[in-house]
Amino acid sequence: MLIRKPNDIPSSEITPEGIYLDRRRFLKRAAAGAILAASPGFLAAGCEAAGQGGTTPSPEADGLAFQMGEELRDELTPYEDVTGYNNFYEFGRDKGDPARNSGNFQIRPWTVEIGGLCHNPGVLDLDEFLRPHELEDRIYRFRCVEAWSMVIPWRGFPLARLVERADPLGSARYIAFTTVYRPEEMPGQRQPILDWPYREGLRLDEAMHPLSLMTTGVYGRDLPVQNGAPLRLMVPWKYGFKNIKSIVKIEFTEEMPVSTWAHDKPHEYGFYANVNPEVDHPRWSQARERRIGEIRRRPTLMFNGYADQVASLYSGMDLTRYY
Ligand code: MTE
What we know:
By secondary structure, this protein is of the alpha+beta class. It has a single domain (6-314), classed as Oxidoreductase, molybdopterin-binding domain (Sulfite Oxidase, Chain A, domain 2, Alpha-Beta Complex), CATH 3.90.420. Helix content is 23%, strand content 20%. It is built from eleven helices and twelve strands. Strands 3, 4, 7, 8, 9, 11 and 12 form a seven-stranded mixed beta sheet that branches. The chain has a five-stranded mixed beta sheet with strand order 2-1-10-5-6. A hairpin with a 5-residue loop joins β1 (111-116) and β2. The model is unreliable at 1-24 and 26-67 (pLDDT under 50). Bound molecules: ligand MTE. Residues 86-90, 144, 179, 198, 227-228, 240-241, 243-246 line the site of ligand MTE.
């Protein structure tokens, strides 16, 4: 069973007004049935949880709160779009395929292997993997490299907590993730669409950033298969393809790990994949995006709007070269 600690601090006491109002909008929609029953401890904004669980809010977490306040002027993308318009090539190429073709996918039992350059390797059952972590709900912008975007309330825990738990060796510089390989349950894996299994990675300092989220849920409930059940990554300043789904393996490495899309089309997709309106995809512009549910395209924001929080990770780097 997933552990969901209810939040015992009334959100009105700790939340900037803008966030609180949006949370009320969110919960109102939940009450109207647009969202399935919100769980008792549900809080829509991650900044509310960032200062809890006995941890001291970091300056980054304060930045996060500010960012959330800005963000919440945007409407949440409806649950039906978040769970019905997906990229999960293991189930097919069309946006409706993951929801349509994932009925046979088994998310229990599930194990996660932690390995590579770390002091605490092991193979953990999912419950064991999640047990020490307090789950939070965070609203993030989500920007696909295909130039569409959403605003999504995810549930998860900071990836940094997992890294600390694994305790990487001094030589580790990257973290690598691998998706489950089960062609018998994932029809797309029976075709050579990509070099299976799907793989992704981050630099260790990116993984330690407080915005990086190990994600187990969306809209206050467990992830549906099409969104990457039972465990995926969410790094909101990067293009959506970095956010690998249905993770079974996490490794610490010295060398930059292979990223499936960067491996497949290195001239089109890089390892970093930071959202950048100034660096176009070879086949289309990245300057603007279509927010799902809107007609007019809106300008794409540098680092997807999280520049204040993350730009310092890349200072001195030529972002046109390291795309
Ligand atoms: N992870 C796996 N294993 N397989 C995939 O095909 N697609 C990526 C990413 N993670 C993908 C994946 C892409 S291209 C995007 S845009 C996001 O998942 C889509 O996430 P969503 O369907 O939850 O919106």
